[in-house]
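Notes to self, Retrovirus-related Pol polyprotein from transposon RE1:
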Amino acid sequence: MYQIDIKNAFLYGDLNETVYIEQPPGYVAQGKRQCMVCKLQKAIYGLKQSLRAWFDKFSRIIGEFGFSRCQVDHLVFVQTTGSVMIILAVYVDDILITGSDVVGIEEAKTYLQKHFITKDLGRPRYFLGIEIAHSKHGVSLSQRNMLVISFKKQVYSALNR
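result:
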């Protein structure tokens, strides 16, 4: 299991509608009026459409590489070639990659690097509050830390009543 971060993910999204924004402060051309608007060519951070635009772009790109969206969880993509299965789990711009073949995993990582600026974070220890432990026997997942935090909150709440 490996983790990849997509840098500036929202900036990859293509807008499906026309969006105008006020010109940002400090970008006033000399001799021009102060109040101008800009037509966006791409999605930007802070725009409500940006997450959807990014995810649509990611889905299209990864689909071109043979991944299909899982019917049960639309944030999971699966590629099956013969007996080899590669799985991508997406949370905004963080991606977990796992599978039955190390070469297939590396090919998927390389493909993502061709289309996006990525940072390979290696083998994750934590992802979305889940502790991930790698061993020669496989991978184990635990939410022990979440239980400890929840227990501490309950104790603190009970003591402050």
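- The chain has a mean pLDDT of 89.
- The first strand starts at residue 2 and ends at 6.
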